[in-house]
Write a structure and sequence with these properties.
The chain is of the alpha+beta class and 277 residues long. It is 52% helix and 16% strand.
Length: 277
């Protein structure tokens, strides 16, 4: 949270930064009216917040003009959005919480969760999705249970046994792992390798994405030959050509039906948010 604390932004000001970020993503720039409508606050409150954010170097603001984030403001906004989405994804994908409830809870928690906790949430989400046992399921009002009836409670022994059973199949699959460029929107994939000559290798290193991280394909622009992915809570754009240098394999751990159901809910929520803007 260092970059956020650096500017001493209150929870309320952080919400304004996020609002400006999403409006700008849709309309290239924001106006006070857009912010007022999105946050359901009065114009005077918006003006006061924008003046404070301008003084802190977070936004470019002048009365009656469009509002944009400064370079520093964009960096803060990306961190805030990442925090919100990681917490929301944990609730939805791991705990099977309703998307709307998860979104509201994430909005309340994102201002106080540390970077350490955030990184561990991401690691746990990835662990659940990659678990080779593929038998962990959520029971409403109860918790997790393992579908392996013979399980002694020792996950290490269970996973080791599963690995031993699938070594031969895994070796065969390793020879057939396709690149990221061959997958489509909505696919969730495990990062296996990045070619040494790919500029994405350094970018992945900067955001802490190591081998085994989960990649979600969010959008593909066939005209521009680009792909937008979500990795470690960050939204990244890369050329299709570069995606061909990123080797992946499909996520195996989550129950397929639950993934599809959650994604359908999230897609509807995203469409609703876009319409509201």
């Amino acid at each position: 949270m260092q970059a956020i604390f650096q500017y001493e932004l209150t929870a309320s000001l952080q919400n304004y930064v996020e609002a400006i970020y999403w409006i700008s993503n849709s309309k290239k720039a924001a106006r006070a009216k857009d912010i007022s409508e999105r946050m359901e606050v009065g114009k005077s409150s918006v003006t006061a917040a924008l003046q404070t954010l301008s003084e802190k170097g977070i936004v470019n603001y002048a009365p009656y003009d469009v509002i944009t984030l400064t370079e520093a403001g964009l960096a803060v906004a990306r961190k805030l959005v990442r925090r919100h989405e990681v917490i929301r994804d944990f609730f939805v994908r791991v705990l099977s919480v309703d998307s709307e409830e998860a979104d509201a809870a994430a909005g309340a928690m994102e201002h106080s969760v540390t970077d350490t906790i955030l990184d561990r949430l991401i690691a746990f989400i990835e662990f659940v999705e990659r678990c080779p046992q593929s038998g962990t399921a959520w029971i409403k009002d109860f918790g997790y249970h393992c579908d392996n009836d013979a399980c002694s409670g020792d996950c290490d022994l269970c996973l080791a046994d599963k690995d031993a059973q699938t070594t031969e199949q895994g070796n065969e699959a390793a020879q057939l792992r396709p690149s990221l460029a061959r997958y489509g929107v909505g696919d969730r994939l495990v990062l296996i390798k990045v070619d040494d000559d790919s500029p994405m290798k350094e970018r992945f290193r900067q955001i802490g994405a190591q081998l085994g991280a989960v990649i979600e394909i969010e959008h593909i622009d066939n005209d521009m030959r680009t792909m937008q992915i979500k990795l470690k809570g960050y939204h990244e754009q890369l050329a299709i050509e570069e995606a061909g240098k990123v080797l992946v394999q499909p996520v195996q751990g989550l129950v397929a039906a639950r993934i599809q159901a959650n994604d359908e809910i999230n897609n509807k929520d995203e469409a609703t948010r876009n319409e509201s803007m």
